[in-house]
Design goal:
Elements (H helix, E strand, L loop, with lengths): L1 E3 L6 H16 L5 E3 L3 H18 L2 E5 H8 L4 H11 L2 E5 L5 E5 L4 E5 L13 H14 L4 H16 L10 H8 L4
Parallel strand pairs: 1-2, 2-3, 3-4
Antiparallel strand pairs: 4-5, 5-6
Length: 180
């Protein structure tokens, strides 16, 4: 189950998150959440953190969201904390790539950003990273390869206007020598 942090604001949505997570876990499935926006995290920090600790298996965030969640600008401390409280975490860092944690923080992988000729529009970059990363996890790929798929998908979408990819991830992965 993939939960979008933007939807965390209304009380009925928070209850739906809990119900969806309970149903997923009862069915033996994983629960992933993206923090979506640092403003959402600032508004609901305590509730989001409680949800993550109790119900999330996978967390996706960017640096600003991570800083807001743990109320610190110390990236390494915040990332390590997130890595310890969930099974898998991926934190995007823009041009600096991403950092992926697995096994409760025991595994840390740094993934380079895929180069682009020109950044045109960053709309949808986080969503595309999540799509590539989660696809990699669903296919049983190692964390590093899942992170590379995320970076590849994000790079494709920032190179043109609009949040939707114009080239399939399958084609991009094949060209980059990554397996799906």
């Amino acid at each position: 189950v993939y939960l979008e942090g933007y939807l965390f604001d209304p009380a009925p949505a928070r209850a739906a998150f809990e119900a969806a997570a309970a149903a997923a876990h009862a069915a033996g499935r994983k629960v992933a959440i993206t923090l979506s926006d640092s403003f959402v995290v600032h508004r609901w920090r305590a509730e989001l953190l409680a949800f993550i600790e109790a119900s999330a298996d996978i967390v996706l965030a960017n640096e600003a969201e991570l800083a807001a969640l743990f109320e610190t600008e110390d990236f390494d401390a915040a990332a390590a904390h997130l890595g310890r409280i969930v099974d898998i975490a991926a934190v995007t860092r823009g041009a600096a790539g991403s950092v992926v944690f697995g096994n409760g923080g025991a595994e840390r992988v740094e993934v380079a950003a895929c180069p682009v000729d020109k950044v045109v529009d960053t709309t949808g970059a986080g969503d595309q990273y999540a799509a590539g990363f989660l696809l990699g996890l669903a296919r049983g790929l190692p964390l590093e390869d899942a992170g590379k798929l995320g970076s590849l998908a994000a790079a494709e979408v920032i190179a043109h206007w609009g949040p939707r990819p114009m080239t399939s991830l399958e084609a991009l992965a094949k060209e980059a020598g990554l397996r799906l």
